[in-house]
Design goal:
This protein is an alpha+beta fold. 20% of the residues lie in helices and 17% in strands. It has helices at residues 2-15, 50-54, 81-85, and strands spanning 37-40, 60-63, 68-71, 91-94, 107-110. It has a 3-stranded antiparallel sheet. A two-stranded antiparallel sheet has the order 1-4.
Length: 118
């Protein structure tokens, strides 16, 4: 009896689309509601540090004097708290799939100095 089931499954699999993908050359469409990873608009960031203070896992570091904003993607749990707390709305969750990392590293962004008119 088991041979008939196995034969049926084998014949069905010959005529339908394969279940697997050739990753990383092919990727699936991200599912609805996937948070993805944090992206920053460096032109609007004022280095207030609210994102760093609100991050529950300490993944974000803001260095105001050096004008540097950095995130450790391996510590980030994609909760979105920093996005909700940012007063300038310069943080966002990008639902695109993050490329596979071969080594652990920080993402470091230098925030440009805003020139005041007047």
């Amino acid at each position: 009896m088991g041979g008939f089931k196995l034969g049926g499954m084998t014949l069905k699999s010959l005529f339908k689309k394969p279940e697997t993908l050739c990753y990383p050359f092919e990727t699936k469409e991200p599912p609805q509601g996937l948070k993805g990873h944090i992206v920053i608009d460096v032109d609007h960031c004022i280095l207030c540090g609210i994102c760093m203070k609100s991050c529950p896992c300490g993944a974000i570091t803001v260095q105001k004097k050096e004008r540097v904003w950095q995130i450790d993607p391996f510590r980030c749990v994609q909760c979105g708290t920093c996005v909700r707390m940012c007063p300038k709305h310069c943080l966002a969750m990008d639902p695109a799939q993050t490329p596979t990392a071969v080594e652990k590293s920080l993402r470091i962004y230098e925030i440009p100095q805003v020139e005041k008119e007047g």
